[in-house]
Amino acid sequence: MTSKLTTRRLLPILLLSASLGGALSACAPIIIGGVVMGSLMVSDRRTAGTQIEDEGIELRASSRIRENLGDRVHVNVTSYNRQVLLTGEVPNAQDKQLVEQVVGRVDNVRSIVNDLALLGHSTLTQRSSDVLVTGKVRAGLVDAKDLYANAFKVVTERGTTYLMGRVTQREANRATDIARATGGVQKVVRLMEIISEEELQPLLPKPAPVEVKK
């Protein structure tokens, strides 16, 4: 049974996920994990400029997919450090390739992971379940005292959870274990950029200065 403490931690994450999933019943693409809020930018391991670039990539790519393929596809675009993850459903291999070509022409895209499925559009129930699973994985990362949850971007599609971020091997393994142990996760795909412990140190949040009263 989920404790009251865990529920309090999970609730704001689910509310955020729900706001991102507001278009679940529509055919327009959904951008998951693409929200940057002031305090989160400080603990994000991307530069502020890269975070803004990633937001722009997601918005431009989603818009161009709609312009070129309309409602016949359901594509989620997630960008982290200019690596773009494509998830969702397309009716055939030609459209899958076309989506990748369209996104590849967006400025600042460094690489593309095309994990689009050749299926009909997912249902509202399936998408709602994925939003809930993403929220639970995020809550697990927040609860882990040895991880910085904001270093990760989490996306779930049809029970497959994708983990993105700039993390050490230890952090990657720990986050993977947390995701695999989360109810509703059927598979974990790691798309994380591995950095050394030495590279990590300058990226860690700086402690707040302590005011000394005279």
Describe this structure in words.
By secondary structure, the protein is of the alpha/beta class. The protein has one domain (1-21, 31-198). It contains 7 helices and 7 strands. It has helices at 4-20, 38-43, 48-69, 93-104, 124-143, 169-180, 197-200; strands at 74-80, 83-90, 111-114, 117-118, 152-157, 160-167, 187-194. The strands form 2 sheets. Strands 1, 2, 3 and 4 form a 4-stranded mixed beta sheet that branches. Helix 6 (169-180) links the parallel strand 6 and strand 7 (187-194). The longest helix is centred in the N-terminal third of the chain and has 22 residues, at 48-69. The chain starts with a helix and ends in a 14-residue tail after the last helix.
